[in-house]
Write a structure and sequence with these properties.
The complex is a heterotrimer of chains A (285), B (350) and C (280).
Chain A: H1 32-55, H2 61-65, H3 68-101, H4 107-114, H5 116-119, H6 122-133, H7 140-147, H8 155-180, H9 184-191, H10 196-225, H11 228-234, H12 244-254, H13 256-276
Chain B: E1 3-11, E2 14-22, E3 27-31, H1 38-46, E4 53-58, E5 61-65, E6 70-71, E7 79-82, H2 94-104, H3 109-122, H4 138-150, E8 156-160, H5 168-184, E9 188-193, H6 196-202, E10 205-210, E11 213-218, H7 220-225, H8 230-236, E12 239-252, E13 257-272, E14 277-280, E15 290-302, E16 305-311, E17 316-320, H9 322-328, E18 335-340, E19 346-349
Parallel strand pairs in B: 3-9, 3-10, 7-8, 8-9
Antiparallel strand pairs in B: 1-2, 1-4, 4-5, 5-6, 10-11, 12-13, 13-19, 14-18, 15-16, 15-18, 16-17
Chain C: H1 2-30, E1 58-65, H2 69-82, E2 86-93, H3 95-103, E3 110-112, H4 116-124, E4 133-144, E5 165-168, H5 173-185, E6 193-195, H6 198-206, E7 212-216, H7 217-222, E8 228-230, E9 239-246, H8 253-264, H9 266-275
Parallel strand pairs in C: 1-2, 1-3, 5-6, 5-7
Antiparallel strand pairs in C: 3-9, 4-7, 4-8, 4-9
Helix pairs in contact in C: 2-9, 3-4
Classes of the chains: A mainly alpha (285), B alpha+beta (350), C alpha/beta (280).
Chain lengths: 285, 350, 280
């Protein structure tokens, strides 16, 4: 490949022995100019969580937990967030591949459009979803009149609203991983007789798996916490569309103690899931 | 399973124009300096680059033809490519790497793995079947990559600097093994290298390209004996000059004259080995009629001999013993006389 | 890469940070929200006493129920016209969330709620200056899209299968009123959504996403031709009374009292009547 000096060091294997881990000099002393703001950042991010823990009515906890609404909202939240993540994977990974590998006019514009849900206020997203998929929406009206399918006020609507705000995270993460992956592995697969789809399935996907996992985690966390788009598009009804964030918001008006308990549960679940994921999946390299 | 190709690839600032023919079972080495177009040739044959114009036929089947617009994609050309940095799939074991091509051909997982195991046996790496590429040494990775390329029985085998990434010791061993595997391979082989020794040992024919053009083709012996460019001469370790011959006397382009053992007329190449050069502090008497006053430009120890670079009426590379070096008390800038016997020269038409 | 670095570095720093944070939290917990009792002036409806030309200035922040959006916005403009040095800022929303905000220390001068229940949240926490005054009442009405495509005529029509109804959440005054109305009519409506304030419920009807919503008469009137109202008998059983009060820690107490007086004045009465509110 003219213009690209081929590396003489083999990508795999060395002249002497197997590869060793990261060198000990990688963890240097942290300069003070970085350490202080970092600590400040840690305090800033952890103080609200500590506030939550400090104000939790620990003695009252079991009584509050026994309310069926809590479990219902939690189950709904977990299910919809997971479904939204699954939807994001199915649609988002191919989309990321398109953005990273295919060449077509308007690619930059497409990427900008895809990141719009990231900067859009969630409620605006909800309104936009209504205008598109609501009963009188540009697509929704046909879904309603031809198939009798309505999306607002349904659990499916919750999944859609959550996927709308969460998918961009996944797309960007996977696109980054694809760009970082060496496309020459795909060349190698082609020389061995692999078609485009086989190459993607057996070579590309395993190589970008950490990036996909990181993107999925981000998407799941974002979906779990989504409020504005959900309440605007899917409404609020216990069991069908009342996810945990909505339950917390409503409980706050009525019964702040309950709100704290709900928040604590959501926090505990999130931390458990995130901690259960291996650290190396969080790095996209 | 022969290969017939007319390659023309155009890039900004570079153009490759090469005709290739490789017989079944033949190993052709493509030699050339960096940027000559060796890798471009490989990639174009493999289908990873597109032809600007020309035609490629493998086994009488046309895989690419710019005049008809026909272009068969890489995965259906039946080629095997050994990359310079091997590109073993890091997430698969050595066995699964080798089995990859077989599975793409539709064989079941079990079948492919059995065949792959046999290949690993042939390259002597059975006990590393389960290892990941990161755990293999350079030589081991090279052998796995070779097995992976050969396992699907390609019609054309392309090797991109197969020994470049290995240390000197491993190289010798791998080169010998590679020779045996290539001898057993029934398809056509194109081997790209910048090391003349590898080319000479592994190949039946050499093709030398510079700046995208063919400069010389022939058997390793022919090329070593009669190099046609300075690059090749340096490659095979000769002093090479151009000049005009009148019987036994050649007027070289640098202006100096040289007496040769062969008689020619007209434009010729003249070559002699560095070991044929004798150096004297004072102008010698005796038979050599080729004597030039030269100045030492560089001194380099090379194992058991010393290479002296000399400038003067013509640039000369001379190999002498360390003892001679001490005796002559040479240093950069020293003026000496260089002589070469006419019988040590080789002259051939340009 | 950033994450791994942070995780390693923060191991040593986390102890420090944790200790520091707990100290801060404890310190914050010590200083309670309510300040020393500065007994505010009674929020009595003394007519225009404080509205003498003596310079009223600054900003008055009014937290008001969503159903008061149209009327209070107008009253605010009128008040600013009468008192050029004053700016009136509004925060409209579900009375329950507004009350929760005030109790948590949101800076406000005046609170106008859509039910005595939500006002009680504020008075019980001791954040009201004096006793709230009821200034209007509001009655529920069914809002349907123009032309009443689904033929809703009574409250029990809302229970027909296939009818999508939006209600307010029960913690919001209009939701509480809906519960009372259901009880009075002995019906059980299954809504598709429980909105967080009455305007959101109304919007769902305007957008055509639901077939009907239980909102206030004033909301139907304010929406003009965008929705059609259907009165129902049980509405009379579920009337919300709206109290208004100056808050204890009001940053601008004088102007706040003036505003409350303005609302209770004859002009205020006219505006509220025109919107469809009932006299208390």
């Amino acid at each position: 490949m003219p213009g690209r000096t081929p590396s003489l060091r083999p990508r795999t294997g060395r002249a002497e022995g197997p590869r060793r881990g990261p060198s000990p000099t990688a963890t240097r002393r942290v300069p003070l100019a970085l350490l202080l703001p970092a600590l400040l950042g840690v305090v800033f991010l952890t103080l609200p969580l500590i506030g939550l823990l400090v104000r939790t009515p620990w003695s009252d906890l079991t009584a509050q937990l026994r309310g069926t609404q809590v479990l219902q909202a939690l189950r709904l939240s977990l299910i919809t967030a997971s479904l939204a993540t699954a939807l994001s994977l199915v649609l988002g990974v191919p989309l990321a591949w398109l953005l990273a590998r295919a060449r077509f006019p308007g690619r930059r514009l497409l990427r900008a459009l895809i990141t719009v849900p990231l900067v859009l206020p969630p409620v605006v997203g909800g309104v936009a979803l209504l205008l598109a998929l609501g009963r009188r929406g540009i697509l929704g009206q046909y879904l309603d009149s031809w198939f009798g399918i309505t999306l607002p006020f349904t659990t499916a609507g919750v999944v859609l609203a959550e996927a709308f705000v969460a998918m961009p995270f996944l797309v960007l993460s996977v696109e980054g991983a694809l760009r970082a992956a060496d496309p020459r592995f795909e060349d190698a697969a082609a020389t061995l007789g692999a078609s485009g789809w086989t190459t993607f399935r057996r070579v590309t996907l395993p190589l970008i798996a950490p990036g996909v996992a990181a993107g999925a985690v981000l998407a799941w966390a974002r979906a779990l916490g989504e409020f504005g788009a959900t309440i605007t598009f899917a409404g609020n009804f216990p069991g069908t569309t009342q996810t945990m964030p909505l339950a917390v918001y409503l409980a706050l008006q009525d019964d702040p103690q309950a709100a704290i308990v709900l928040s604590l549960i959501l926090l505990a679940v999130s931390i458990t899931v995130l901690a259960a994921l291996r650290e190396r999946w969080m790095t996209t390299a | 399973m022969s290969v017939d190709a007319r390659l023309r690839v155009e890039r900004p600032g570079f153009a490759l124009d090469l005709d290739l023919h490789i017989e079944a079972g033949q190993v052709v080495a493509l030699l050339g300096p960096n940027g000559a177009g060796k890798t471009t040739t490989l990639r174009t044959l493999a289908g990873l680059n597109a032809l600007s114009s020309g035609r490629i036929a493998i086994d009488d089947a046309v895989v690419e033809d710019s005049s008809t617009g026909r272009r068969i994609p890489t995965e259906r050309r039946g080629i095997g490519l050994l990359f310079q940095d091997y590109l073993l799939f890091p997430h698969l074991s050595a066995l699964d790497n080798v089995a990859f091509g077989l599975r793409c051909q539709g064989r079941s997982k079990a079948e492919a793995r059995t065949a792959a195991a046999a290949w690993l046996e042939r390259v002597g790496l059975s006990e590393h079947a389960a290892a990941r590429p990161a755990a293999l040494s350079g030589g081991q990775a090279q052998r796995v990559a070779l097995a992976r390329a050969l396992a699907p029985s390609p019609r054309l085998l392309l090797l991109d600097e197969p020994l470049a990434a290995l240390d000197a010791h491993t190289r010798l061993d791998i080169r010998t093994r590679l020779r045996h595997h290539l001898a057993d391979f029934t398809g056509a082989t194109l081997l790209v290298t910048h090391d003349p020794l590898d080319a000479m040992i592994l190949a039946d024919r050499l093709i030398v390209i510079e700046h995208g053009q063919l400069v010389q083709a022939g058997t390793p012996g022919e090329i070593a004996r009669h190099p046609r460019t300075e690059y090749i001469a340096r490659l095979v370790g000769l002093n090479l000059y151009r000049g005009t011959a009148t019987d036994h006397r050649v007027r070289l382009t640098q202006g100096a004259d040289i007496t040769t053992v062969d008689s020619h007329q007209g434009p010729v190449f003249v070559a002699f080995r560095p070991t044929a050069v004798a150096l004297y502090r004072t102008r010698p008497d005796g038979t050599p009629r080729n004597q030039w006053p030269v100045t030492v430009a560089g001194i380099e120890r090379r194992g058991d001999h010393v290479r002296i670079d000399l400038t003067g009426p013509l640039p000369i590379a001379a190999d002498i013993t360390p003892a001679a070096l001490a005796e002559l008390d040479l240093a950069p800038g020293t003026e000496v006389w260089a002589t070469v016997k006419a019988t040590e020269t080789s002259t051939y038409p340009a | 890469m950033i994450m791994t670095f942070a995780l390693r570095a923060s191991r040593t720093a986390s102890a420090l940070a944790l200790a520091g944070a707990v100290v801060l939290a404890a310190a914050a917990g010590c200083s309670s929200g309510s300040g020393s009792g500065s007994g505010g002036a009674p929020a009595a409806a003394s007519s225009g006493a404080a509205s003498s030309a003596a310079a009223l200035s600054g900003t008055v922040t009014v937290f008001a129920a969503a159903s008061l959006t149209g009327t209070f916005t107008k009253l605010g403009k009128d008040f600013e016209a009468a008192h050029p040095g004053v700016t009136v800022k509004f925060n409209f929303g579900g009375s329950d969330s507004l009350a929760a905000g005030i109790v948590s220390g949101a800076p406000a001068d005046v609170f106008a709620a859509a039910s005595t229940t939500t006002m009680n949240t504020v008075t019980k926490a001791g954040d009201a200056a004096g006793t709230p005054t009821v200034f209007v009442k509001n009655q529920l009405e069914i809002a349907v899209p123009p032309g009443d495509p689904k033929g809703i005529k009574t409250l029990s029509d809302l229970t027909k299968p296939g009818i999508k109804v939006a209600l307010c959440a029960t913690t919001v005054p209009c939701g509480a009123a809906a519960v009372k109305a259901e009880a009075a009519g002995d019906v059980k409506i299954t809504p598709v959504t429980l909105e967080t304030d009455v305007k959101a419920a109304l919007t769902k009807v305007e957008l055509g996403e639901v077939d009907a919503a239980l909102v206030y008469q004033t909301d139907v009137k304010a929406a003009g031709g965008k929705v059609q109202g259907v009165d129902f008998t049980e509405a009379a059983k579920a009337i919300n009374t709206y109290p208004i009060v100056v808050l204890k820690d009001a940053p601008n107490a004088t102007a706040a009292q003036a505003f409350v007086a303005f609302v209770l004045s004859a002009h205020g009465r006219d505006v509220l009547d025109a919107a469809g509110f009932q006299n208390p």
